[in-house]
Fold these 2 entries.
Entry 1:
Amino acid sequence: MLYGATNFPLRPLADEIRTLAGLGFDFLEVCLDPPEASPARIDANLPAIEAAIAETGLKPRVGHLPTFVWLADIYDSIRRASLKEVDSALETCARLGLKKAVVHPGYITGLLTFIPQLGQNLVYRSLEELLASAERLRVTLCLENMFPRAGCFFRPEEFTEVLARYPQLMMTLDLSHGQIQAPPERMAGLIAAGGRRIRHVHVSDNRGQDDEHLPLGTGRVDLAGGFSALKKLGYDDTITLEVFAPDRDYLAMSLSKVKALWEKA
Protein backbone atom coordinates (compact mmCIF):
# COMPACT_ATOMS: atom_id res chain seq x y z
CA MET A 1 0.00 0.00 0.00
CA LEU A 2 1.19 3.52 -0.81
CA TYR A 3 0.14 6.42 1.42
CA GLY A 4 -0.07 9.93 0.03
CA ALA A 5 -1.20 13.43 0.89
CA THR A 6 -2.48 16.41 -1.03
CA ASN A 7 -0.78 19.76 -1.39
CA PHE A 8 -2.55 22.85 -0.05
CA PRO A 9 -3.07 24.99 -3.17
CA LEU A 10 -2.52 28.25 -1.27
CA ARG A 11 1.16 27.32 -0.83
CA PRO A 12 3.85 26.91 -3.50
CA LEU A 13 3.90 23.32 -4.73
CA ALA A 14 7.67 22.92 -4.31
CA ASP A 15 7.37 23.92 -0.65
CA GLU A 16 4.52 21.47 -0.16
CA ILE A 17 6.56 18.64 -1.64
CA ARG A 18 9.34 19.26 0.88
CA THR A 19 6.89 19.51 3.78
CA LEU A 20 4.99 16.32 2.92
CA ALA A 21 8.19 14.39 2.26
CA GLY A 22 9.38 15.38 5.72
CA LEU A 23 6.22 13.87 7.22
CA GLY A 24 6.98 10.47 5.71
CA PHE A 25 4.47 10.14 2.86
CA ASP A 26 5.06 7.82 -0.10
CA PHE A 27 3.60 10.03 -2.81
CA LEU A 28 1.93 13.33 -3.59
CA GLU A 29 -1.61 13.76 -4.90
CA VAL A 30 -1.42 17.02 -6.84
CA CYS A 31 -4.46 19.23 -6.29
CA LEU A 32 -4.59 21.25 -9.50
CA ASP A 33 -6.33 24.31 -8.06
CA PRO A 34 -5.34 27.99 -8.03
CA PRO A 35 -3.68 30.10 -6.88
CA GLU A 36 -0.43 28.12 -6.43
CA ALA A 37 -1.25 24.83 -8.17
CA SER A 38 -3.15 25.80 -11.30
CA PRO A 39 -1.79 24.28 -14.51
CA ALA A 40 -0.31 27.64 -15.55
CA ARG A 41 1.36 28.12 -12.18
CA ILE A 42 2.79 24.61 -12.21
CA ASP A 43 4.17 25.13 -15.71
CA ALA A 44 5.77 28.42 -14.66
CA ASN A 45 7.41 26.83 -11.61
CA LEU A 46 8.26 23.45 -13.10
CA PRO A 47 12.06 23.70 -12.58
CA ALA A 48 11.59 24.40 -8.84
CA ILE A 49 9.00 21.61 -8.58
CA GLU A 50 11.26 19.11 -10.32
CA ALA A 51 14.13 20.12 -8.05
CA ALA A 52 11.99 19.50 -4.96
CA ILE A 53 10.97 16.06 -6.28
CA ALA A 54 14.61 15.14 -6.99
CA GLU A 55 15.72 16.42 -3.58
CA THR A 56 13.07 14.59 -1.55
CA GLY A 57 12.15 11.57 -3.66
CA LEU A 58 8.46 12.37 -3.11
CA LYS A 59 6.92 11.75 -6.51
CA PRO A 60 3.50 12.86 -7.73
CA ARG A 61 1.44 9.77 -8.52
CA VAL A 62 -2.17 11.02 -8.65
CA GLY A 63 -3.75 14.22 -9.91
CA HIS A 64 -6.82 15.81 -8.38
CA LEU A 65 -8.59 17.70 -11.15
CA PRO A 66 -10.07 21.16 -10.36
CA THR A 67 -12.51 21.08 -7.48
CA PHE A 68 -14.34 24.39 -7.78
CA VAL A 69 -15.77 24.02 -11.28
CA TRP A 70 -19.26 23.29 -12.59
CA LEU A 71 -19.43 20.21 -14.80
CA ALA A 72 -23.22 19.98 -14.40
CA ASP A 73 -24.14 23.63 -14.76
CA ILE A 74 -27.40 24.50 -16.51
CA TYR A 75 -25.61 27.33 -18.36
CA ASP A 76 -23.72 25.66 -21.18
CA SER A 77 -21.13 28.47 -21.31
CA ILE A 78 -20.23 27.86 -17.64
CA ARG A 79 -20.09 24.10 -18.14
CA ARG A 80 -17.84 24.53 -21.19
CA ALA A 81 -15.53 26.89 -19.31
CA SER A 82 -15.30 24.31 -16.52
CA LEU A 83 -14.47 21.57 -19.02
CA LYS A 84 -11.69 23.76 -20.42
CA GLU A 85 -10.17 24.10 -16.94
CA VAL A 86 -10.35 20.35 -16.30
CA ASP A 87 -8.89 19.56 -19.73
CA SER A 88 -5.98 21.88 -19.02
CA ALA A 89 -5.39 20.09 -15.71
CA LEU A 90 -5.44 16.72 -17.49
CA GLU A 91 -2.73 17.97 -19.82
CA THR A 92 -0.65 18.93 -16.77
CA CYS A 93 -1.20 15.47 -15.26
CA ALA A 94 0.22 13.94 -18.44
CA ARG A 95 3.23 16.30 -18.41
CA LEU A 96 3.94 15.32 -14.80
CA GLY A 97 3.76 11.63 -15.71
CA LEU A 98 0.66 10.93 -13.60
CA LYS A 99 -1.21 7.78 -14.57
CA LYS A 100 -4.50 8.47 -12.82
CA ALA A 101 -6.58 11.52 -11.91
CA VAL A 102 -9.49 12.11 -9.55
CA VAL A 103 -12.51 13.93 -10.95
CA HIS A 104 -15.53 15.30 -9.10
CA PRO A 105 -18.83 14.84 -10.96
CA GLY A 106 -20.00 18.39 -10.33
CA TYR A 107 -22.84 19.82 -8.28
CA ILE A 108 -26.54 19.87 -9.06
CA THR A 109 -27.64 23.30 -7.87
CA GLY A 110 -30.14 26.06 -8.64
CA LEU A 111 -32.89 25.14 -11.06
CA LEU A 112 -31.34 21.73 -11.62
CA THR A 113 -32.51 20.68 -8.16
CA PHE A 114 -36.04 20.59 -9.65
CA ILE A 115 -34.89 18.50 -12.61
CA PRO A 116 -32.04 16.34 -11.24
CA GLN A 117 -32.12 13.94 -14.18
CA LEU A 118 -31.08 16.77 -16.48
CA GLY A 119 -28.22 17.54 -14.09
CA GLN A 120 -27.07 13.93 -14.18
CA ASN A 121 -27.26 13.92 -17.98
CA LEU A 122 -25.02 17.00 -18.03
CA VAL A 123 -22.53 15.12 -15.85
CA TYR A 124 -22.59 12.26 -18.36
CA ARG A 125 -21.94 14.67 -21.24
CA SER A 126 -19.00 16.20 -19.39
CA LEU A 127 -17.60 12.80 -18.46
CA GLU A 128 -17.74 11.62 -22.07
CA GLU A 129 -15.59 14.55 -23.18
CA LEU A 130 -13.15 14.17 -20.30
CA LEU A 131 -12.81 10.43 -20.84
CA ALA A 132 -11.89 11.06 -24.47
CA SER A 133 -9.20 13.53 -23.37
CA ALA A 134 -7.93 11.18 -20.65
CA GLU A 135 -7.68 8.28 -23.09
CA ARG A 136 -5.69 10.43 -25.52
CA LEU A 137 -3.32 11.46 -22.71
CA ARG A 138 -3.14 7.92 -21.23
CA VAL A 139 -4.45 9.06 -17.87
CA THR A 140 -7.01 6.90 -16.02
CA LEU A 141 -9.98 8.95 -14.85
CA CYS A 142 -11.34 8.01 -11.39
CA LEU A 143 -14.77 9.41 -10.49
CA GLU A 144 -15.12 10.31 -6.80
CA ASN A 145 -18.23 9.60 -4.77
CA MET A 146 -19.71 12.75 -3.27
CA PHE A 147 -22.23 13.58 -0.49
CA PRO A 148 -25.92 14.59 -0.48
CA ARG A 149 -25.24 18.33 -0.76
CA ALA A 150 -23.66 17.71 -4.17
CA GLY A 151 -26.99 16.43 -5.46
CA CYS A 152 -25.60 13.45 -7.38
CA PHE A 153 -23.15 10.55 -7.34
CA PHE A 154 -23.32 9.80 -3.66
CA ARG A 155 -25.63 6.77 -4.04
CA PRO A 156 -24.33 3.26 -4.83
CA GLU A 157 -26.81 2.81 -7.68
CA GLU A 158 -25.45 5.89 -9.45
CA PHE A 159 -21.99 4.31 -9.53
CA THR A 160 -23.38 0.98 -10.70
CA GLU A 161 -24.92 2.83 -13.65
CA VAL A 162 -22.04 5.15 -14.56
CA LEU A 163 -19.39 2.42 -14.36
CA ALA A 164 -21.51 0.14 -16.54
CA ARG A 165 -21.98 2.97 -19.06
CA TYR A 166 -18.27 3.87 -19.29
CA PRO A 167 -15.98 0.82 -19.10
CA GLN A 168 -12.84 2.98 -19.12
CA LEU A 169 -13.97 4.99 -16.07
CA MET A 170 -12.66 3.97 -12.63
CA MET A 171 -13.66 5.05 -9.13
CA THR A 172 -12.06 7.04 -6.33
CA LEU A 173 -13.65 5.83 -3.10
CA ASP A 174 -13.83 8.62 -0.53
CA LEU A 175 -14.59 6.81 2.73
CA SER A 176 -15.43 10.02 4.58
CA HIS A 177 -17.84 11.25 1.86
CA GLY A 178 -19.60 7.90 2.04
CA GLN A 179 -20.68 8.47 5.64
CA ILE A 180 -21.95 12.05 5.42
CA GLN A 181 -25.71 12.14 6.16
CA ALA A 182 -25.78 8.49 5.19
CA PRO A 183 -27.44 5.30 6.43
CA PRO A 184 -24.97 2.69 7.73
CA GLU A 185 -25.29 0.54 4.61
CA ARG A 186 -24.27 3.24 2.10
CA MET A 187 -20.54 2.69 2.44
CA ALA A 188 -20.85 -1.05 1.88
CA GLY A 189 -23.04 -0.33 -1.13
CA LEU A 190 -20.49 2.05 -2.64
CA ILE A 191 -17.68 -0.45 -2.20
CA ALA A 192 -19.81 -3.18 -3.78
CA ALA A 193 -20.75 -0.89 -6.68
CA GLY A 194 -17.13 0.07 -7.34
CA GLY A 195 -15.65 -3.38 -6.77
CA ARG A 196 -12.36 -3.85 -8.58
CA ARG A 197 -12.95 -0.60 -10.45
CA ILE A 198 -11.90 1.22 -7.24
CA ARG A 199 -8.42 2.46 -8.19
CA HIS A 200 -7.82 5.12 -5.53
CA VAL A 201 -9.01 5.89 -1.99
CA HIS A 202 -9.40 9.12 0.00
CA VAL A 203 -9.55 9.19 3.80
CA SER A 204 -10.23 11.84 6.43
CA ASP A 205 -12.63 12.09 9.36
CA ASN A 206 -15.90 13.92 10.01
CA ARG A 207 -18.81 13.88 12.44
CA GLY A 208 -21.34 12.59 9.94
CA GLN A 209 -22.89 15.84 8.75
CA ASP A 210 -20.30 17.80 6.74
CA ASP A 211 -17.11 17.21 4.78
CA GLU A 212 -14.85 18.47 7.56
CA HIS A 213 -11.53 16.81 6.60
CA LEU A 214 -10.68 16.23 10.25
CA PRO A 215 -7.65 14.30 11.55
CA LEU A 216 -8.27 10.58 11.87
CA GLY A 217 -9.81 9.56 15.16
CA THR A 218 -11.55 12.88 15.82
CA GLY A 219 -14.82 12.02 14.05
CA ARG A 220 -17.12 9.10 13.36
CA VAL A 221 -15.98 7.65 10.02
CA ASP A 222 -15.72 3.85 10.16
CA LEU A 223 -12.36 3.49 8.43
CA ALA A 224 -11.78 0.05 9.92
CA GLY A 225 -14.97 -1.28 8.33
CA GLY A 226 -14.18 0.35 5.00
CA PHE A 227 -10.64 -1.01 4.97
CA SER A 228 -11.86 -4.50 5.84
CA ALA A 229 -14.22 -4.45 2.85
CA LEU A 230 -11.48 -3.13 0.56
CA LYS A 231 -9.08 -5.85 1.68
CA LYS A 232 -11.66 -8.49 0.80
CA LEU A 233 -11.63 -7.05 -2.73
CA GLY A 234 -7.85 -7.40 -2.81
CA TYR A 235 -7.27 -3.64 -2.91
CA ASP A 236 -3.57 -2.75 -2.67
CA ASP A 237 -2.93 0.53 -4.43
CA THR A 238 -2.96 4.17 -3.26
CA ILE A 239 -4.59 5.89 -0.28
CA THR A 240 -4.51 9.67 0.08
CA LEU A 241 -5.01 11.45 3.38
CA GLU A 242 -7.12 14.58 2.96
CA VAL A 243 -6.59 16.05 6.43
CA PHE A 244 -6.68 19.84 6.22
CA ALA A 245 -5.79 20.88 9.77
CA PRO A 246 -3.57 24.00 9.74
CA ASP A 247 -1.12 22.26 12.07
CA ARG A 248 0.57 19.58 9.96
CA ASP A 249 1.38 17.53 13.09
CA TYR A 250 -2.19 16.25 12.84
CA LEU A 251 -1.48 15.06 9.31
CA ALA A 252 1.58 13.15 10.52
CA MET A 253 -0.44 11.56 13.33
CA SER A 254 -3.16 10.62 10.84
CA LEU A 255 -0.55 8.90 8.67
CA SER A 256 0.45 6.69 11.60
CA LYS A 257 -3.20 5.94 12.35
CA VAL A 258 -4.14 5.04 8.78
CA LYS A 259 -1.22 2.62 8.49
CA ALA A 260 -2.20 0.90 11.73
CA LEU A 261 -5.87 0.73 10.73
CA TRP A 262 -5.00 -0.83 7.38
CA GLU A 263 -2.72 -3.42 8.97
CA LYS A 264 -5.40 -4.41 11.49
CA ALA A 265 -8.33 -4.52 9.02
Note: The longest strand covers residues 59-64.
Entry 2:
Amino acid sequence: MGYYTPGGSMSNTQAGTSGGGLASLNFTSQPNTALLVTSQKAKNSSLLGNMAGKTITATFTVNGTDAFTYYGQPDACNTPASARLYFETSNGGGFDYTHYWWSNPASAVLANGTLSVSATVDPASWSDWNGQSGTSVPAGFAAAASNVTTIGLSFGGGCFFENGVGTANGMGGLVLDSYTAN
Protein backbone atom coordinates (compact mmCIF):
# COMPACT_ATOMS: atom_id res chain seq x y z
CA MET A 1 0.00 0.00 0.00
CA GLY A 2 1.30 3.45 -0.79
CA TYR A 3 0.43 6.63 1.07
CA TYR A 4 1.80 10.07 0.32
CA THR A 5 3.52 11.72 3.29
CA PRO A 6 3.17 15.44 4.08
CA GLY A 7 6.53 16.00 2.35
CA GLY A 8 5.22 14.40 -0.85
CA SER A 9 7.19 11.15 -0.74
CA MET A 10 5.59 7.70 -0.85
CA SER A 11 5.37 5.63 2.32
CA ASN A 12 4.73 1.94 1.70
CA THR A 13 3.05 -0.39 4.16
CA GLN A 14 1.60 -3.87 4.01
CA ALA A 15 -2.15 -4.01 3.38
CA GLY A 16 -4.40 -5.89 5.75
CA THR A 17 -6.40 -8.96 4.81
CA SER A 18 -9.57 -8.37 6.82
CA GLY A 19 -13.00 -8.57 5.24
CA GLY A 20 -12.43 -11.92 3.54
CA GLY A 21 -10.71 -10.50 0.46
CA LEU A 22 -7.18 -10.60 -0.90
CA ALA A 23 -6.25 -7.30 0.75
CA SER A 24 -7.92 -4.39 2.49
CA LEU A 25 -7.25 -0.79 3.39
CA ASN A 26 -8.86 2.01 5.35
CA PHE A 27 -9.01 5.44 3.78
CA THR A 28 -7.82 8.40 5.84
CA SER A 29 -9.28 11.89 6.14
CA GLN A 30 -6.38 13.15 4.01
CA PRO A 31 -6.25 12.56 0.23
CA ASN A 32 -3.08 10.48 0.53
CA THR A 33 -4.05 6.87 -0.32
CA ALA A 34 -2.37 6.32 -3.69
CA LEU A 35 -1.68 2.61 -4.32
CA LEU A 36 -2.67 -0.93 -3.42
CA VAL A 37 -0.07 -3.11 -5.18
CA THR A 38 1.92 -6.31 -4.98
CA SER A 39 5.37 -7.26 -6.15
CA GLN A 40 5.36 -10.70 -4.49
CA LYS A 41 6.03 -13.10 -7.36
CA ALA A 42 5.85 -16.22 -5.17
CA LYS A 43 2.27 -15.43 -4.14
CA ASN A 44 1.16 -13.81 -7.40
CA SER A 45 3.03 -15.49 -10.24
CA SER A 46 0.12 -15.11 -12.67
CA LEU A 47 0.07 -11.33 -12.07
CA LEU A 48 3.75 -10.60 -12.65
CA GLY A 49 6.04 -11.13 -15.62
CA ASN A 50 4.66 -10.98 -19.15
CA MET A 51 1.17 -9.43 -19.09
CA ALA A 52 1.04 -8.43 -22.79
CA GLY A 53 -2.35 -9.26 -24.29
CA LYS A 54 -3.88 -10.41 -21.00
CA THR A 55 -7.06 -8.92 -19.60
CA ILE A 56 -6.62 -7.64 -16.05
CA THR A 57 -9.73 -7.39 -13.87
CA ALA A 58 -10.00 -6.09 -10.32
CA THR A 59 -13.18 -6.39 -8.26
CA PHE A 60 -13.36 -4.60 -4.94
CA THR A 61 -15.89 -3.49 -2.35
CA VAL A 62 -15.97 0.03 -0.92
CA ASN A 63 -17.89 0.64 2.28
CA GLY A 64 -18.42 3.26 4.93
CA THR A 65 -18.49 6.46 2.89
CA ASP A 66 -19.52 8.04 -0.40
CA ALA A 67 -17.71 11.32 0.24
CA PHE A 68 -14.32 10.92 -1.44
CA THR A 69 -11.80 13.68 -2.06
CA TYR A 70 -8.59 13.71 -4.07
CA TYR A 71 -5.34 15.65 -3.71
CA GLY A 72 -5.48 18.99 -5.55
CA GLN A 73 -9.28 19.11 -5.63
CA PRO A 74 -10.79 20.91 -7.41
CA ASP A 75 -8.74 21.10 -10.58
CA ALA A 76 -9.40 21.87 -14.24
CA CYS A 77 -10.29 18.24 -15.11
CA ASN A 78 -12.95 17.91 -12.37
CA THR A 79 -12.96 14.09 -12.57
CA PRO A 80 -14.18 12.41 -9.34
CA ALA A 81 -11.99 10.26 -7.10
CA SER A 82 -11.52 6.89 -8.75
CA ALA A 83 -9.53 3.66 -8.90
CA ARG A 84 -7.56 2.41 -11.93
CA LEU A 85 -5.52 -0.63 -12.78
CA TYR A 86 -1.79 -0.01 -12.47
CA PHE A 87 1.45 -1.77 -13.32
CA GLU A 88 5.12 -0.95 -13.48
CA THR A 89 8.35 -2.51 -14.60
CA SER A 90 11.85 -2.41 -13.11
CA ASN A 91 13.73 0.88 -12.84
CA GLY A 92 17.02 -1.06 -12.87
CA GLY A 93 18.29 0.97 -15.84
CA GLY A 94 17.11 4.26 -14.31
CA PHE A 95 13.82 6.15 -14.21
CA ASP A 96 11.70 6.39 -17.35
CA TYR A 97 8.09 7.55 -17.84
CA THR A 98 7.34 4.31 -19.66
CA HIS A 99 8.07 2.22 -16.57
CA TYR A 100 4.67 3.20 -15.03
CA TRP A 101 1.23 2.50 -16.59
CA TRP A 102 -2.41 3.23 -15.69
CA SER A 103 -5.53 1.85 -17.37
CA ASN A 104 -7.05 4.62 -19.45
CA PRO A 105 -9.97 5.07 -19.89
CA ALA A 106 -10.94 2.09 -17.67
CA SER A 107 -11.60 3.25 -14.10
CA ALA A 108 -14.22 3.06 -11.35
CA VAL A 109 -15.57 6.12 -9.53
CA LEU A 110 -15.17 5.46 -5.80
CA ALA A 111 -18.50 4.96 -4.02
CA ASN A 112 -20.05 2.44 -1.64
CA GLY A 113 -20.68 -0.94 -3.25
CA THR A 114 -18.92 -3.56 -5.32
CA LEU A 115 -16.93 -2.10 -8.21
CA SER A 116 -14.93 -3.59 -11.05
CA VAL A 117 -12.26 -2.35 -13.45
CA SER A 118 -11.07 -4.34 -16.45
CA ALA A 119 -8.58 -3.61 -19.25
CA THR A 120 -6.61 -5.60 -21.79
CA VAL A 121 -2.86 -5.03 -21.68
CA ASP A 122 -2.56 -3.45 -25.11
CA PRO A 123 -1.11 -0.03 -25.95
CA ALA A 124 -4.46 1.67 -26.67
CA SER A 125 -5.80 0.94 -23.17
CA TRP A 126 -3.00 2.40 -21.01
CA SER A 127 -1.25 5.74 -20.31
CA ASP A 128 2.25 6.21 -18.90
CA TRP A 129 3.58 8.50 -16.13
CA ASN A 130 3.68 11.39 -18.60
CA GLY A 131 0.10 10.83 -19.82
CA GLN A 132 1.11 9.35 -23.16
CA SER A 133 -0.92 6.50 -24.60
CA GLY A 134 0.93 3.25 -25.17
CA THR A 135 0.30 3.79 -28.88
CA SER A 136 2.54 6.90 -28.69
CA VAL A 137 5.43 5.00 -27.11
CA PRO A 138 4.94 1.41 -28.32
CA ALA A 139 8.47 0.18 -27.54
CA GLY A 140 8.26 1.49 -23.96
CA PHE A 141 4.83 -0.04 -23.46
CA ALA A 142 5.92 -3.41 -24.87
CA ALA A 143 9.01 -3.49 -22.66
CA ALA A 144 6.99 -2.72 -19.51
CA ALA A 145 4.08 -5.06 -20.33
CA SER A 146 6.45 -7.96 -20.97
CA ASN A 147 8.19 -7.56 -17.59
CA VAL A 148 5.64 -6.42 -14.96
CA THR A 149 7.29 -6.25 -11.53
CA THR A 150 4.51 -4.50 -9.56
CA ILE A 151 0.75 -4.55 -10.19
CA GLY A 152 -2.44 -3.40 -8.49
CA LEU A 153 -4.77 -0.42 -8.15
CA SER A 154 -4.06 3.29 -8.04
CA PHE A 155 -6.25 6.01 -6.56
CA GLY A 156 -6.61 9.54 -7.87
CA GLY A 157 -8.91 12.14 -9.30
CA GLY A 158 -9.03 15.28 -11.34
CA CYS A 159 -6.25 15.37 -13.92
CA PHE A 160 -4.18 12.64 -12.27
CA PHE A 161 -4.47 8.88 -11.81
CA GLU A 162 -2.36 8.45 -8.65
CA ASN A 163 -2.48 11.74 -6.77
CA GLY A 164 -4.15 10.17 -3.73
CA VAL A 165 -7.67 9.99 -2.34
CA GLY A 166 -9.25 10.20 1.09
CA THR A 167 -12.68 10.58 2.62
CA ALA A 168 -14.32 13.71 3.96
CA ASN A 169 -14.82 12.12 7.39
CA GLY A 170 -11.81 9.77 7.53
CA MET A 171 -14.04 6.72 7.45
CA GLY A 172 -14.48 4.03 4.83
CA GLY A 173 -12.50 1.16 3.51
CA LEU A 174 -11.81 -1.01 0.51
CA VAL A 175 -11.60 -4.79 0.28
CA LEU A 176 -9.93 -6.23 -2.82
CA ASP A 177 -12.17 -9.19 -3.66
CA SER A 178 -10.29 -10.44 -6.73
CA TYR A 179 -7.48 -9.42 -9.08
CA THR A 180 -6.92 -11.59 -12.14
CA ALA A 181 -4.97 -11.60 -15.39
CA ASN A 182 -6.16 -13.99 -18.12
Note: Residues 138-145 form the longest helix (8 residues).
